[in-house]
Amino acid sequence: MNVNITSLPYSKKAPVPMITRWKSPSNIALVKYWGKRDHQIPQNSSLSFSLNTSFTDTQVSVRPKTEKGGDLIALKLYLDEVRNPKFEDKIVTWFKQLITDAPYLSQFEWEIKTSNTFPHSSGIASSASGMSALALCLTDIEYKVYGKWDKTEDFYRRASYLARLGSGSACRSVYGGYTVWGKHDAIAGSSDLYALSVSKYIHPDFASMHDAIMIVSRSEKSVSSRAGHSLMNSHPFASQRYLQAQQNMENLLNFIQNGDFEGFAEIVENEALTLHSLMMSSVQSFILLQPNSLEIIHRIRNYRKRTGVPVCFTIDAGPNIHVLYPEKAREEVLSFIQNELIEFCDQQYWIDDKTGTGPSKVIL
User: Fold this and answer.
1) CATH number for the domain whose boundaries are 204-354
2) 115 three-class SS
3) Does the structural domain 18-202 have CATH classification 3.40.50.1000?
4) 3-class secondary structure for 20-36?
């Protein structure tokens, strides 16, 4: 790496006003990130792929501050054209945490307009797409102000670094395809500070993976991911889990490179169930899976065993089930979903998505 991505000087001559707009996808983790240290450092590495149609569209406008001696961060945030104080407070807190690395944040007045292509509480991580889209906007503004990050690799690495500090999984969304986050001895270039694209190593069967999200419930989950991560600090199985995840990372990457769907399915499903078993066995335990979640899991496994069709599942921190399958199995799996799965979804609602190519800048 040719530049230091973690700090910038104070800007005396910023070219304002400025405006930029980015679209960034959510991602689905195959090896799960669950448990962290201070400053959003993961306890184990994780592997995900970015989605295609499930993304956040964010526009950021900045201008010089008009009031002196006001709040450190002057910011207004609009979600779907409506000002959102709750999300606004979250972004203000994030900006304050970034001041050391990005002192210009206190120089401007910020207007952020954002929207998602997917509904809230739909089994898709809006924090990953939202924070990554905003981090890309910030990095773009940094390029305009400082002339930094003019190499593509440096630009996306900086955006991943900033996104991580807002939401850990967001650092993986600044890349398309498959992405690794977290230091792993077997993965050259991997880091706890930012994510790393590994798409060039992926077998063609896995490069075109589909993700059909079965919406068992659209209710907001009872426990936040942030609270769930904190429970790992006192979890009796934490140390063994982190070792398991590191081994699963190495094995899963080998299966994806070699096109081994059977090995892929075994690890991905085990990772999903391990995540929920950790929730259920925490000192303050909680259960997010619902009866229909379990029914969908049983039916996927029975269908795969009965037909040999390459299909498996993963689960995020919620009750909704992600049905994963390669392009070559699309016709069979769509029929299976219609005939056997959608009756267990909330009002038969599900989302049809697939592996995406990553974020894009919107030309204004």
Assistant:
1) 3.30.70.890
2) strand
3) no
4) EEEEEEEEEEEECCCCE
